[in-house]
Amino acid sequence: QVQLVESGGGLVQPGGSLRLSCAASRSIFSLYTMVWYRQAPGKQRELVATITSGGRTKYADSAKGRFTISRDNAKNTVYLQMNSLKPEDTAVYYCNAELDLPDGTIYNYWGQGTQVIVSS
Asked: How far from 7 is each of 43, 65, 96, 113, CA to CA, in Å?
């Protein structure tokens, strides 16, 4: 079992920045692919950014050039640096951890979410 705890959300003005953190409870965190998702009111949850155990990153088009995902395996933590925030970035941001084993076993865990509000 892996517990994920997000932090760093809040209210920010358009054009501002926030850094979200997601701390994992287990040291095998380094094996997991970590993903940030978000869900805006009335909308489906969408993928924002992914970072593999090897450090490869991938971003949604809406996040490219503005958001940066990173991980610190020594601290069992993944980050999402969000710059040039827009009102449409307002959402609850969720951290997800997934580990796919060769035998087909999949481990998948979610955090509780952290609210980001971009408003003047």
From this structure: 22, 22, 14, 8
Residue 26 has pLDDT above 80, yes or no: no
Supply the pLDDT for residue 108.
93
Task: Check if the beta carbon of residue 108 is closer than 8 Å to that of residue 98.
Answer: yes
pLDDT given for residue 2 in this prediction: 83
Query: What are the angstrom distances between the C-alpha of 79 and each of 22, 42, 102, 112?
Result: 6, 26, 27, 15
Please report the pLDDT score of residue 53 as a whole number. 92
Which helix (DSSP H) or strand (DSSP E) does residue 12 occupy?
A: strand 10-12
CA distance 6 to 77: 9
For the chain, give the mean pLDDT.
95
114-118 and 10-12 beta bridge pairing: parallel
Classify the phi-psi angles of 32: left when phi > 0, otherwise alpha if psi is within -120 to 50, otherwise beta.
beta
Question: In this structure, what token pair is assigned to residue 99?
Answer: 């580990």
| Closest C-alpha among 39, 52, 46, 55 to residue 97 | 52
